[in-house]
Amino acid sequence: MAFLKNYINDVIGALRSSLKGMRLTGYYALHHKREKITQQYPDNRNELVLPERFRGEVIMTHDEHNEHACTGCTACELACPNGTIKIITKFEVSPDGKKKKALDTFVYHLELCTMCNLCIEACPTNAIKMAQTFEHSVFDRNKLTKVLNKPGSKIRAGVE
Amino acid sequence: MWSLENISHSIDNWLYNTFDPTVAMLVEFLVVAFCVIGLFAMLGLVLIMMERKVSAWMQVRLGPNRVGPGGMFQTVADTLKLIVKEGMTPLNVDKFLFNLAPFIVMIVSMVVMAPLMFAKGIQIWDINIGILFITAVSSVSVIGILMAGWASNNKYSLLGAMRSGAQIVSYELSAGLSVLSIVVLTGSLRISDIVNSQSNGWWIFKGHIPAVVAFVIFIIAVTAETNRAPFDLAEAESELTAGFHTEYSGMKFALFFLAEYVNVFIVCAIGATLFLGGWMPLHIGNWTAFNHIMDYVPTFLWFFGKTFFLIFVIMWFRWTFPRLRIDQLLNLEWKYLLPISMLNLLFVTVITILKWHF
What we know:
The structure holds two protein chains of two kinds.
Chain A: H1 2-30, H2 32-35, E1 57-60, E2 67-68, H3 75-79, E3 85-93, E4 99-109, H4 118-122, E5 128-131, E6 145-147, E7 154-155
Parallel strand pairs in A: 2-7
Antiparallel strand pairs in A: 1-5, 3-4, 4-6
Chain B: H1 4-18, H2 21-58, H3 74-84, H4 95-112, E1 117-119, E2 122-123, H5 130-138, H6 141-151, H7 155-186, H8 191-196, H9 203-206, H10 208-225, H11 237-240, H12 250-275, H13 288-296, H14 299-318, H15 326-354
Antiparallel strand pairs in B: 1-2
Helix pairs in contact in B: 1-2, 2-3, 2-12, 2-14, 3-12, 4-5, 4-6, 4-12, 6-7, 7-10, 7-15, 10-12, 10-15, 12-14
């Protein structure tokens, strides 16, 4: 008898869960105009809406004084799985005479990057982030090797 | 009053009055063949378009929207592409069987169309074993599929064909039993009798719960029989690349593709004929005014409306449920659908003997 009860429960449960799934897809089919998520890209290039977490390329944020937050710790370089980032450091002499390691050049190879986000997670000072730009095609491969710190920029005071 | 029946009858009379009977019959054969091929082409275009749009809507996408207004001519463009493609035969295949298989699958779907009743009086061949003919002939298509899989000399194709064979053979049982329950209620295998018996209400309403159960089982079983998701193990893109038609290209591939969609149309037409009254308009009890208005809708619109509703339901299945594993598939058939449909057939028989149906 218990077998029969389980059997009937199975059938009813299967029907109920199937109808539940079909109700959701049926709702989408009826409301496809309102719910649609497709971006018709080249046509709506000006009003394109990208999701918040979209990953286009790695950039370094600079504030209005042309200062960044990168200490040159190379955590991102170590985190990168395929050698996209190369950090060249230098020694700066602070006003009180101490020598301190600092960022010289942040080299970023866009052509190698897989947008895995590991460098951003590794960065202890939130100096780099993912930008939403994505139209990266160029005719010359060398243009894909980028220097992320702007010329003349220096580390923001107080960032260790 | 204007109707398709009158047109076909006047053409028939004119042919038989003008030529001698043999010539007239041959001309009618040609006309019917032309109509069936035309219907095939139209169904291929319309159903593939419908499938792509329905899938897009259910997945919150847009679907084809570039060729023509709203993407309406996308399938026409695809067909043109397939026609001009090279019909390649790979080197190590069994050439005869490889080239024969798509045509067998295609011809089976054409032959099954013979006893279908598309509108009042529009039927190619009114045989007294119509529904038996359909169930018998439609199972021949598995031979075409097995032939394609075997001749391709490819392990994926063979696996897909074998799965398809196992699937069609097992699901035909429950589809046949649910068809049988309507045959028991009607007392006839002739399609026109089945449709006429529903003039005072469709079987799904008249047959109480057993008819509804039979309808649900029929829809599930024919979804499996036509090798569509969630029962598309025979094709299973992610496991077998494309199953039995992996090695096909160009127009031969298109024939398989077309046959799949036409089979969907045919099984839905059978479902509409058996359970939803075929071309019979919707009549509710004694509402004379309502019934009268319903009679003004042309009968072929009723038939195609019901059929396309069922096609939509089957597409709805496809874009909702994930693919079953082979053991789940056989479990569903042998442990659930078959015992339930056998029991259901018993109930239907009791209802018919005691005359409990309306």
